[in-house]
Amino acid sequence: MDSIVTDLVEVMKKEKIFYKRKSHDDFFAQLIATITQLAFQTLDEEICAQWKKEGFRVDRKSERTITFLFGTVTYVRRRMKNQANDIRYPLDEFLGIRKGIRYSSLVLRNVSQLGSMMVYRHVSQAIDCLTSWRMSHQNVQQLVVKTGELIQAKSTHESRYDGIITKKKVPYLYLEGDGVKINGQKKQSLEVHRFQVCEGSQKVGNRSEMIAPHFVSHLNRKKAYKEMMAYLQAYYDLSHTVVISNSDGGSGYEKAVFDELALGCLRHEHFRDRYHVHRKMKERMALFLNSNIE
Length: 294
Hints:
flat, alpha+beta, 9 helices, 24% strand, five-stranded mixed sheet, Nucleotidyltransferase, domain 5, three-stranded antiparallel sheet
């Protein structure tokens, strides 16, 4: 404890505005990580001693790095094996840390919860501001998808996209989205939110038809967005696809929204709807002319 206080005093001396500096957070994040690392070491020894009584023996030791809300911890744990060659990691099982995942269950839950309330770029910015570690918006999306897969594995819910094994690989995808207001009686109105995607167009006689179109509409924009996201992830491998998107740029249809729908693609190009661009130009020109007249 004395050495910890001494180190903290040294940090305070170096940083006059101590509590406004990042070194403050870094110091405590590293302190907690070190204490956690030592605790894991002790816990691993105790758990493995119990497993030895059940016929397991230590096969080897290996490192693992996990990111918790308080920071990233690298620790060494024992891999154990029994006579049937069953390989287990007692400490990982005790902590509930899943194979192939670099984040704690609490991080998975919190990031997924934030991802359901805001765009992934904002989640990434929130993590950067409030924690000692960073996560790109691409990783946020991957984490949300992975968490959904884990939940799905334990759920009896049947998705309409279950059973899709081979994902389509296409050179181009065309995405559109907008909201349409439907006026009703007594000044009431509804707004229908709509997304559509297709693989291009082709001539059929004297008219053009979309290739493999898919439409999603809902009175709730977030639900329409999530449905389109689920469809794209289920049906397409976008790693070699150029995604071309179009919208009026209104609330909920900004470029960032389509960036997320196109995550993982080869390239994303976003355009504003021609009609709305012309309308906005007319509005701005009218304001300019009126200001000059005044």
